[in-house]
Every structure is written in structure tokens, then in C-alpha cells.
Fold this sequence. Notes:
six-stranded parallel β-sheet, 11 helices
Amino acid sequence: MGIVGVGFVGGQAHAPAFKRIPNSRLIALSARTKERVKPIAEKYNVTYMLDHNKLISQPDIDAVVVATPTPLHYDVVKLALENRKHVLCEMPLTPSVKQSQELGRLAKKVGVILMPVLNFRFTPNYLKVKELLTANALDEPAALSFVESIPARDLATQWPAGSWAWDKEASGGYPDFTLSVWSIDLIRWLFEAEYADTHWKTNYLPLKDLGGILGYSTMGLFKLTNGVIGSLHYTCLTTISASQSTLEILGRNTFAIRAESNNSTTLTAESPARQEWRFREVGTRVWGHYQMDEHFIKCVLGEADPQVTVEDAVKAQEIASGMTR
Length: 325
């Protein structure tokens, strides 16, 4: 394994995961600056380089993780595929649906795996939601809501004003677009249904005290092909104490499933009136990165079929793109 991009996800999620996963050997890391990549490479006792072309061309590297900023995905992934490397790429796959589809066709042509990182499918509490839905705990799901609020100060620290995340043309959209694709895909996966009708409304307010980043509040209403209706709300207009990630699903039997952040799932019913499952995963397992990376390794070794495909990435991106129109 080689990793291109060692920011938060590449350096703190994928690097430690691939260092520990059985049948995986982390060989090299790449980033633009020595100050960023050297400490992480030393921590995991691997080689580092400032030129990702050099990493991708190494014959002893079979697969590459692309965890760079979104505007760089297309070129790095394309180069890796042309070198016949399997690729695990962060989301959004590229800034445009057209580019993502092009990479998917290239991967098929050269005969390698291109897997988007849609790790919510591997997060323990969402797996429990899937289990409850499969067991018909709600009789028939009717409606759902998903709310993700990220503190504006945290967002400004990660992506200061003027950085790529606020360049709508380069990244495909503002952070509401960039951060929405995981939950959009999660809903498709949970209900095994497609989005039949989606409508977005957005409100962007410049936050002068935070360098001028846009305080976004974006809401979507949708209906799935199975009849379930739902709402999506993404915002950074919140403080650290009020941040949340909450999924709630209502059923015909008046029962409800609620998933809070990454650590709990609750079923409110009648007998018993309430069941709660707590998940105390740590490290790279918290949001399913370890589990997803482990699945990727098994797919590369021919021990499993990919549960996540380029088509999944494209469909999530198509829905998310609606908020930028």
C-alpha cells in the first residue's frame, strides 16, 4: 500500500489502518511538504516522498490510497490506474460526475479496482440500523431525517477561507456538497432504493469573524423509489457543544430507529419500549475506516467482491450536485 495525501483522513485514518490490517503492508507515504509527511512516515516506519508520481510508479506498491484535496483526485487517480494500481479514493471521487464516470471506465479497461471511500456503510451503529431494517423492525419505513451540523470554528480551522474547499468550481461545490456524499449514499444503501425526486434549498452567510468562510445551511427534501420520504440538513451554523450527526427513521407501526453520531442506535417500540445499543469502537474503527480498508484489501486479494463501487460514488455525487445548481 501507498498513500497519497496525509491530512486528517490519510494520515490519521488510513495510515494506521493499513499498518495493522492482516495481509496489508504499508510501504510509502506522499505529500507536498516534508514538514507534513515526515513525522507520519517516521511514526509508522515507512518511506516518504514529495512526488506522488514516484510513489505510484514503485513496482512493489500494488494499491494506492488517494486522500488529497478533491481538486487533485482526478489526476492522481488517473495516473495510478494507468500504472495498473488498485485505488481507494476519498469522496467526492472527483469534482464532476463526468470525471468520476471516466475514471470508472478506465479502471474497468485496465482491470483494477477503483473503490470510493463510502465508509458510513461500515460504521457500527449504521450497520445496526441496517440490521433492524432488514429484520422489519419498523414494519414498513415511511420517513426519515438526517441532520449533520459541524461547528463553524472547526470547519474554518480545517478549511480556512480561500482554501480549495471554498472554490466551488475546483471542488465541485462548497463544504455542504463535499461533506454530504457519505450520508446520501448511506440512505441508498440502508433502503436499497434510489432517489426519485430531490429538491435543495441553500443559504450561505459570510462569517467575518472566521475569515469570511460561508456559514452554510442546506436542506433537501426527497422521495425514494420505495416510497420513503425524507429530509437532509447540513449546516456549520453551530457551536462545538451543539454539533451532531443524527439519523431518525419512522415506521408504519409507529416505531422509530435513531442513530446518534457514531456510537449509538436506539429502537423505540412498545415491548420493550426502548432498546439501545452502544458502540465503543476506538481509533480508525470509529467511523468505519478500518473496516472499509480491510474490505478493500480482501477485494484486491480476490477474497471478496467490492461492496462499494464507482457507480455508488457517482449516484451520491449526482444527488449532491443538485444543491449547487
